[in-house]
Amino acid sequence: MFQPRKTHNALISVFYKDGLEELASALHAQGVAIYSTGGTQEFIEKLGIPVNKVEDLTGYPSILGGRVKTLHPKVFGGILARRQNEHDRQEMMEYQIPYFDLVVVDLYPFEETVKSTTDESAIIEKIDIGGVSLIRAAAKNYTDTLIVCDKKDFSEVAQMITRQSGETSLEQRRTYAGKAFHVTSHYDGLIFGYFERESPRAFKASVSPAQPLRYGENPHQKGTFYGALNEMLVQLHGKELSYNNLLDVDAALNLMGDFKEPTVAIIKHNNPCGVATRSTLAEAYTDALAGDPVSAFGGIIVANRPVDETTAHEIDKLFMEVLIAPGYEERAVEILKSKKNRMLLVQKAPMPQGKLFRSILNGVVEQDRDTVILKPEDLKQVTKNAATPNQLEDMLFADSIVKHTKSNTIVLVKNKQLVGIGAGQTSRVDALKNAIAKAAEFGFDLHGAVMSSDAFFPFPDCVEIARNAGITSVVQPGGSVKDDLSIAYCNEHDMAMYFTGIRHFKH
Q1: Domain of 63?
Q2: pLDDT digits (tens, 9 = 90+) for 408-417
Q3: Which residues are catalytic?
Q4: In the 8-state DSSP scheme, what is residue 341?
């Protein structure tokens, strides 16, 4: 029923002219009559290509400062007319309306304007009305009309028109219609988000492109990543990132964003198992690995300095899945490429600071990111004993690790090195016992170490266990109705305790 359509008439009205020369020239070469408005019309005419003015077709000029140009039955009739419908054909003849076989329209840059200004009048003017209507109309009538609404497609469509002597297939028109509805739905979602930013009444998200993954969390689950991963990361080597790799990379980059000095962290199942800050990256890696060399096997390594040859030699001794850094020395890349599946990533941009979303039950929850990074003045001494300057630095170091570790968690740090961790436990006591056991397993002396907790202690049991292990300095949020019990125990046993006032639950 629906045959290939010959392109006789094209309506072109675009904000971005990039690549338009190739497309307009291809259409002209096929004898296509071009209709246009305003700046697009002038652009095409400067190419030496004849253009029919839309205002000559409608009998109306562009009015209201350009707000109304194409909203007219002679434009929308030409787009929406059904070629197979006898009544439509009769009306097209009666009102002398040309059929538009191709519509090339994009939208005002609303998203870019919101990012560049807070001037609401300027933002409102970038809400496209005619463009959205034209795109939706052409996409709805894809059986007869081809819609092109992205400058990235101009070259492809130009080649298609040339290759097929001006014809388009139903399959091609339907494919572009799908792209068009993605563009308009994304655009409307952005506008809705702007108006509802203070008190949203619905969750709307549009993230693209879609990247199929080998599988989801497990081989029997399908997985897809939505987003422009290449804006965040460049992959230099290795196999494709998996669903689980992506979760670990996200956890690694969030953690590393809190550290400014040369630091290396090792991530396993979204939790850090090794973190160290040192004067050189090689030392930081060696000490991060020492925190738990068993768990590090097959993990994710992240660094906040370019990887040099010395560090690369050390890393190459370990079986690991992914390495992320802001850069690599040339020789370091050669060394690390020795394992063909090892994924080497360059971080191009910092982690986004927007909202976090998670699907739960039959809906979605949203929250702000936990962006708190403690400063020395945020630590409130609540005991008679004070921590040493080194221990105070370790408390800040430990709090940044606690923030990125699954609750319930306890982190033990000594000299800016993670020496013991208990993560994702149903009991904070169990988390502490696991952390102490880890430290003992790998030969760490906990005398002088600090203990950090993601939440308060309702009883003094944890500080008692910590003291028996040699720990004398504790940092925690505080806020329990029984804080005094833990404070009293610390005072009785010459321990130092500091409150942060910030809880770091992570589920």
Answers
A1: 5-195
A2: 999 999 999 9
A3: 140, 269
A4: T
